[in-house]
């Protein structure tokens, strides 16, 4: 199982072996870390329990790195930790929050440049145990800090830097999912160790992996939209950001090309991917283009899923729903920035994709009624399942695509939260929940329980999910000791429950503001 919270760990060997020249090229902040000497690799640090332990049932450890090894600090974040944990009933839950909420800042800000000029800010946010930045993960890793940008200018600059760095990645290789440290950071690129043949080609010093996933691009838009919602500002919409947006629009247009033209001839596909592998989920069928897709559905292909597994049918419904919402939010931000022509184009595209999801992505199930399919091909075939990774069907209301009370969503939720309805609903002796083919059929993911809690208004259901999420920390059988996205989702869930259902987690007498 992905160990959610105990995780953390600070990472990064700011290695002993760095030369003086290498250190000097880095940001002042990174230089100071490096000169302090090597902090333990958080991937290892996180596998060991560190004191002090809680007085709770599970005696959970304190897994934040030592202060001098934290990569980025924020007073506003420390304030939230103190206020939240002071009033929580369960000391184990409080400890998990304390470990998880700052995890992105503590351990994953591998490079950050602050500057008086917003457009010069940069932030490289690694996923955790792999020294590369995923577009999707980094957006999710920062999302719990958005409410604090008005209180902490440093944090605001960090997020502005992340928006710029993501835009730079998309300007260089819009089809790719994970990226190397920017050259200016002086950090060395690493290899993913795979033999991939990918078109369009890319520079391996820029790209860590080039699986085309529609939700990576939606995550880029989402980071800007979250910033706009939190600040009411449109200063992130720079000339460079607009060029990146145009790359996204161009990619969407390329990825709506069906396999066959109306006369039956085969159409050229811009993106192809094959890998030398024994796993079907790591390469694409039909010599790298994926299984056939019908024309004129309004839907956009996604070669891979947010788990980085190959899609079976490339009209991936959660990714299309996510993109539809983020395009419409982007249109609102563009309007606020007086970019009305571009806003109109982006809004129309978002609405088209939204209509495509309702027309092709909703199917009649023999037991559960009308439900959202996970993937469709536009010919009428579909895949019924859900995967723990976000975006998922379970998360559709959190993405802003549909209300939790919508009938189709309610039917879908019932289906994907049952082992009879969802082949990847995995039941174990210690833990049950949605998993996915990425890790295999023996491990459910805590992320799915957290999303289930955030999409529920049932007190008993939320309580038991939170309990299970805390309880799973005890297990010895997990797959990743340092996974900042999962840690962030735990923190986001606790903040969500604090707002919607404070009585479930706080002491009754001293209610949290
Ligand atoms: C898709 O629709 C357009 C416009 O109606 C049409 O020209 C084109 O032939 C259609 N494509 C296919 C493959 O049917
Ligand atoms: C919490 O989870 C544990 C382990 O699954 C279980 O034994 C316990 O009864 C649960 N407590 C509550 C309040 O649900």
TrEMBL record:
Keywords: Signal
GO process annotations (BP): carbohydrate metabolic process
MF terms (GO), sorted A to Z: catalytic activity
InterPro entries tied to this protein: 6-hairpin_glycosidase_sf, 6hp_glycosidase-like_sf, GH125
Short name of any one Pfam family annotated for the protein: Glyco_hydro_125
Cleavable signal peptide: 1-20
PANTHER family tied to this protein: MEIOTICALLY UP-REGULATED GENE 157 PROTEIN
Protein's name according to its UniProt entry: DUF1237-domain-containing protein
